[in-house]
Amino acid sequence: MTKPMNIISERIDDVVLLLHVLMQMGLPQLLNEHLPRHPNQAGLDWGWVIIIWLSYILSEGDHRKVKVREWVTQRQQMLEMVCDIEIGEYDFTEIV
C-alpha cells in the first residue's frame, strides 16, 4: 500500500522575483554588516528579516508590520526554499 501524498499549495506571485533581485544585490549580507545581531538574538539575521519584509511591502503595497507574520506563514515553505533559510515560529512576531 502506498503512502498518501501530502500536497501543500502556496501562492508565490511576484515574491520569488523580488527576493532574487534583493539577494543578487547582496542586501542581506550588506544589512547584516551594518545591523549586527544582539548576542541574545535568536532566529533570522536582520538582513533576512528586512528583505522578506521589503518583499512583502513591494508585493502587497502594504507597509504595516502587523500583517507580515500572517503573510510569511502563508508562504513559509516557498520563502525557506528560495532564501535557503529556516524560518522559526517567532522570527516575524515582533519586527522592531
Describe the structure in your own words.
The radius of gyration is 15 Å and the shape is globular. The protein is mainly alpha-helical. It has a domain at 15-32 and 43-83. It has helices at 15-24, 27-34, 46-60, 68-74, 76-83. The protein has five helices and no strands.
Q: Which helices and strands occur, and which strands form pairs?
A:
Elements (H helix, E strand, L loop, with lengths): L14 H10 L2 H8 L11 H15 L7 H7 L1 H8 L13
Shape: globular
Spans with pLDDT under 50 lasting ≥5 residues? none
- How many strands? 0
Share of helix among residues?
A: 40-55%
* Main sheet specs: none
Q: What's the total helix number?
A: 5
What is the overall pLDDT average?
89
Distance between the termini: 50 Å
Provide a quick synopsis of the model.
This protein has a domain at 15-32 and 43-83. It has 5 helices and no strands. The protein has helices at 15-24, 27-34, 46-60, 68-74, 76-83.
